[in-house]
Amino acid sequence: MQRNGVFALAVCAIVLVLGASGAAQAQCTLPYQLTNGQPADATQVMANYNALIDCINAVALPNDLRELGPFAPPTASSFTVIDSPSSITPTVTDVAKVGLLYSVPLTSNATSFPGAYRAVPVAPWTLTFRAKYPTLMGNYPSFGVWIKDSSGKMLGAIMESRSSSASLVVKRCNSNTSYSSNPYVQSISDAPNWFRVSYDGTNINFYVSWDSQNWLFIWTETNTTFLNGTLALVGIGGLTGTSSGRPGSTLGGVVTYWDIDDDPASGRLNP
């Protein structure tokens, strides 16, 4: 009975893996070829089972099995500016089969805005990305997309925790340590996973989405409404801004998809 159970488990694993993934079917090689009606040999069955487990771990999931869209995270090396106000230093790290990890040390500072940036492309351009991040925890942990102009002013669309609620916020900052205003604030119970910002040379447009197909257009302003007209950097950012944790904690987010005109996702699908 135990041998039959092992054989059934291995057969189920084979069916699930090979039936779900063409990539796995092409790349998974079993050490033993078992035929219908053959008496089960526990050694051979377990060898095939272990080979399948190793193969599953080694083969990236196909696009249609990714949660709400394809898997194409950016590389950490593409973020050439790490903004560390008030000695709050974020890190970006490539984590295989997880995505780009953005982390910030836990701090109660709620007035500094660290981030990881890269140069903006030549206009017009559009950045679309998907991220998983925490929201509800004290005042004011945040995560989202930020633009900086050549003077250091910042404009961003972020999710921000506000004690017992979370809000979608468009935020203006005079610098990475000086808040200016929130021209848009919308309380929200289900944080979006997708962010988009587009720039046509004059207008900056922010969007969010929960499914990558339907987009909520939340804000638009010109490049001189608050910024100085010369966009320099675009990237991700967020502060921890909470004391609700032990020393050594970090907050941030994982970016699993990134598409921008001069670094298209098509070149990084299923890395």
Description:
There is one protein chain. The chain is α+β, with helices and mostly antiparallel strands and 271 residues long. It contains three helices and 14 strands. It has two domains: 58 residues, no CATH class; 192 residues, Jelly Rolls (Sandwich), CATH 2.60.120. The longest helix has 19 residues. The radius of gyration is 23 Å and the shape is elongated. The N terminus is likely disordered.
Topology at a glance:
Blueprint: H1 2-20, H2 22-27, H3 42-58, E1 81-83, E2 91-95, E3 99-105, E4 115-119, E5 125-132, E6 138-149, E7 154-163, E8 165-175, E9 178-187, E10 194-199, E11 203-209, E12 215-222, E13 231-237, E14 250-260
Antiparallel strand pairs: 1-4, 2-3, 3-14, 4-13, 5-10, 5-14, 6-7, 6-13, 7-8, 8-9, 10-11, 11-12
Helix pairs in contact: 1-3
Summarize the structure in short.
The chain is of the alpha+beta class.
- Total strands: the figure is 14
Query: For the report, how would you describe the main beta sheet?
Result: 7 strands, antiparallel
* CA(first)-CA(last) distance: 42 Å
Overall helicity: 10-25%
CATH architecture of the largest domain: Sandwich
Structural class: alpha+beta
**Under CATH, the topology of the largest domain is which?**
Jelly Rolls
Q: What is the CATH domain class of the largest domain?
A: Mainly Beta
Mean pLDDT: 82
Work out the radius of gyration.
23 Å
Order of helices and strands: HHHEEEEEEEEEEEEEE
**Can you tell me the residue ranges where pLDDT is under 50 for at least 5 consecutive residues?**
1-7, 13-26, 60-66
Query: How are the strands of the biggest sheet laid out side by side?
Result: 1-4-13-6-7-8-9
User: What share of the residues does DSSP label as strand, in percent?
Assistant: 35-45%
What is the global morphology? Answer: elongated
Number of domains: 2
Query: What is the number of helical segments per DSSP (H or I, 4+ residues)?
Result: 3
